[in-house]
Amino acid sequence: ALAVKLRPHGMWIGYHAHAGDFKKISGETYWDILFGNTRKEVLMQMDTCNASDGGGDPIASLRKYAGRSRTVHIKEYSATNKNAILGEGDIDWKTVFSICETIGGTEWYIIEEEKDVYPPMKAVELCLRNYKVLRTKM
C-alpha cells in the first residue's frame, strides 16, 4: 500500500537486487517471493551482475516482472573473468536492452562498475565506451 500512497507525490518504492536474493527456499528464489507478493507498483531494480552471480537469470526476471524495471543496474558478469567490465563478459546485452525497452518499463540504465581493476575515471571511460558499442549492436 505504501507504493500506491507514494505515487501522487511522484515517488516510487522498490528493491535493488543482491546475489543472495537468488537463493531458493522451497524451490522459489527470495526475489520471486518478494516480487510475486508485492503490487506491480513496487519497482524491481535488477542488477544484472548481482543476479547472475547469485545463480539467478536477470533476463528471465526482467521478462517475468514486465513493467517493473524503471531503473536497471547494468553491470557485467563473467563466470571465468571476475574483472570483466561492461561488454566483456557473459551477459546477453542485446536481449537485456530489448526487454528493458519493450516490456520492462525502463527509463534509466545505471552503468555500474565496482571491481577496482582500473582507476575510477578510466573505468568510467571504458564502461561508457563499451556501452556505446553495445548500443550500436542493437
Description of the molecule:
By secondary structure, the chain is of the alpha/beta class. It has one domain (2-136): TIM Barrel (Alpha-Beta Barrel), CATH 3.20.20. The chain is built from 6 helices and 6 strands; from the N terminus they run H-E-E-E-H-E-H-H-E-H-E-H. It is globular. The mean pLDDT is 96.
Record the SSE blueprint.
Blueprint (H helix, E strand, L loop, with lengths): L1 H5 L6 E4 L7 E2 L2 E2 H7 L5 E4 L2 H6 L4 H7 L6 E4 L18 H12 L3 E4 L8 H17 L2
Parallel strand pairs: 1-4, 5-6
Antiparallel strand pairs: 2-3
Helix pairs in contact: 4-5
**Quaternary state of the chains:** single chain
The biggest beta sheet reads:
2 strands, parallel
Principal-axis shape equals globular
Counting helices, strands and paired strands, the structural category is alpha/beta
Into how many domains do the coordinates divide?
1
Determine the mean pLDDT: 96
Radius of gyration: 15 Å
Q: Please write the string of helix (H) and strand (E) elements.
A: HEEEHEHHEHEH
Summary keywords:
alpha/beta; TIM Barrel; two-stranded parallel ribbon; two-stranded antiparallel sheet; 6 strands; 39% helix; globular
Summarize the structure.
With 138 residues, the protein is of the alpha/beta class. The chain has helices spanning 2-6, 30-36, 48-53, 58-64, 93-104, 120-136, and strands at 13-16, 24-25, 28-29, 42-45, 71-74, 108-111.
